[in-house]
Amino acid sequence: MKNHQEFIRMAIELAKESKKEGNLPFGCVLVNKNGEVLLKGKNTINTDNDCLAHAEVNLIRDAYKKFDYSYLKNCSIYTSDEPCPMCTSAIYWSGIGKLIYGLSKVKYYEIVGRDNLNWVFEMPTRELLERGGRKLEVIGPLLEEEVSILHAD
């Protein structure tokens, strides 16, 4: 099985594609228990004119068309950045068993700032998931310096 860093780097490449397409630089991949990439997700909020079209939500919508809850519990989602509260909740409700992310929200806000309060929603993923009944393994941050470049300009 490929290591976590390789899958985070795939998510980073998807985030780069999102940015080139005029969207925010966020990406993710869904991997099964055998280490096979099942699906990829990119942020499409601008191109789809949909404020809910975050990379993770887009991926989960596709995943649920192909896989059921019992299958997804043995899968992992790798995200370029620590998911927002909406995406964290979507991951929780999907049944996906493990979340691995690159850039932490703390580091993200250090880079992009907190000037636009309409876009600041700082709730750590682990804190939100602690309130759920189902346990979901969380690993991260990983490769923060590599992901930081996406948000630096």
From TrEMBL:
Signal peptide boundaries: none
SUPFAM superfamilies according to UniProt: Cytidine deaminase-like
InterPro entries, per the entry: APOBEC/CMP_deaminase_Zn-bd, CMP_dCMP_dom, Cytidine_deaminase-like
Source taxon at top rank: Bacteria
CDD domains: nucleoside_deaminase (cd01285)
Gene Ontology molecular function, alphabetical: tRNA-specific adenosine-34 deaminase activity; zinc ion binding
EC number per UniProt: 3.5.4.33
Record key words, sorted: Hydrolase, Metal-binding, Zinc
Pfam families: dCMP_cyt_deam_1 (PF00383)
Entries under PROSITE patterns matching the protein: CYT_DCMP_DEAMINASES_1, CYT_DCMP_DEAMINASES_2
Keyword Metal-binding among UniProt keywords: yes
Entry keyword annotation includes Lyase: no
Residues of the CMP/dCMP-type deaminase domain: 2-136
Protein name (record): Nucleoside deaminase
Species of origin: Marivirga arenosa
